[in-house]
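seq:
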Amino acid sequence: MRNRLVCFLLVSSAAFGQTLKPPVGDEFTIAWVGDPHYGSPWINFPNVSNWLAAHKTDWNIKAFVSVGDNMCRAQADQTADACFVASGGYTPLIAFATALDNAAIPYVIVNGNHDCNFAPPFHGVWDALSFPRTHFAWASVFPAGKFRNQYLKVDSGSVHLGILGITSDDVPGDTDCINPDLTTTYKISAASWSAGVATVTIPRLFGFLTGSTATITGAGAYNASGVVVGTTTATAFSYPLASNPGGSCASNCGTVTTPGTAVRQWAQGIVNADPVRQFLTVMHQTPSAAGQQAGLSGTVAGPYVIQAGVNDAMSITFRYPVNTMSWSGGTASIGVTAYQEIAAGQPLTVLGTGSFSGYSATATALTSSTTNLTYALASDPGVTCASACGAVSSAPVLITLTPGTRTVEQVAADIASAVGLFSRVQIHPTALSIRIGATSSVGTIILNSVANSAYGTLGLSVYRFDDIGHVSWSQYGAYSPCQFEIPDCSRDGLGMWNGFINPNPRILWTLNGHDQVTTSLWAQKNGAGSTVVMPMGGETGTGNVLLIKFQPSLHQTTWYYTDVTSGTAVLNSPGWYMNPAGIWQSIAVFPWTPLLSVRASVVPEAAVIRGAKVR
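struct:
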């Protein structure tokens, strides 16, 4: 009899002591690196392989993962790239894999865009490589005989994990080698019909290939079941529909679903076939943008008791530094650090410093971009500014929280709905508190009337910089793991969402890379409500290795951000995320409930495992 305890992300507020502690007892480790870019100033393969081989036993290392971009080659110039040629091509990567194999350390090494061709066949060079595997075997690869997509089983005692390294099909319809086509459901934004053929428009064509099947629902006379997809473009596809629906549709035109592409079905089949196994997915593309993000986090985790007229009202202003100022013909123009989100037609307040005070005004934005604003200003200030000119602020954004006992996700949704594009409203990955992220790395979030009890309820105080990785967010401002046009949350507006299968509560971790300036740690919930720990490896450091220590008896995983350049693992400084107090952390602990194999002969009618009764 096998039992599973459902686990939600619940992390102790204590910082767990910043000390490296190797596994003991039934504990074991999976090591991984962010984009290596070997040959550039990033990961040095010998540094990493030497440490892994030397410490395989004391750290009980069961597997190694690379999230792609293994070499420094430029994607647009695969043969003449100077760094790639000087590094010896793929020879260092093969030597690295050989060293791991000789140490009997199984690995999953996926490709990134820097490992691919610039045009079809995208995997032409990658497919020609031969990785040594004399001491282990992948449980499955896709396509057969290739290793673009790799599946590795990791078994340790009664714990059974699976690592799914996923890139793409490399079939007609793909646009690159790093965005696996995993989506199965889209909302239709437009539909039309002509001569027995219907054409529908969706946000982006992932998972819909000519010849696959699709089902259209909620579209009235456009509804169809199991139809064969005809011609496709980047955002539309056609299918046979004999009867004229009687008109076109220009918005909210229903939903279309498909079984997905071959790579999705391969991954889906693996997860479905092994119900006692939990999974870690590996994809090169990041869930959202690049770099880390300034913001303000509360210190109180949900749920929150919100009372109308007591602690349900908030007011927030967003401020951006101004870098340039100029004036012409009654219009002032100011430049700001990306990305500002005051839109044309919205109020703004400009405060010029010192000799630039003539630009100070409360006005309405005439034009707007992510780095520039204009507004009416009658008098010529008589001076221009090229740096450190002042600041521009939005009008106060008024927020009303829904009364009741509310989860952190529900409160985040209330805030996000009100602030729109001004902020990326998130949940802090370890504190489980509300996080209001700035869209500009140097922007400021002003909590108006901090004495208001709403701020106390959420543990928010005066603006205090913190820094964590980007969290999946909607370009429409709503708190959502993906664009609302894609209901199954397989893909967000800028990258891949990894809780993609079903979504399945047994997919608990995902590793990502791609243009991530600094390593960062965060978490998100998939559509099934299960928390997925989603760190991103940074393009930094010659010996940066991230260690995931699985601790079955403690029902937790401990994540260490380390540097092994010296031959000894040390915690990285400053760390990979900030706690709500603004202190950098190199260690994070997440609860984890392993799937337990329990013999029925030794289990009575009910058993209690860590305080939870299972039958």
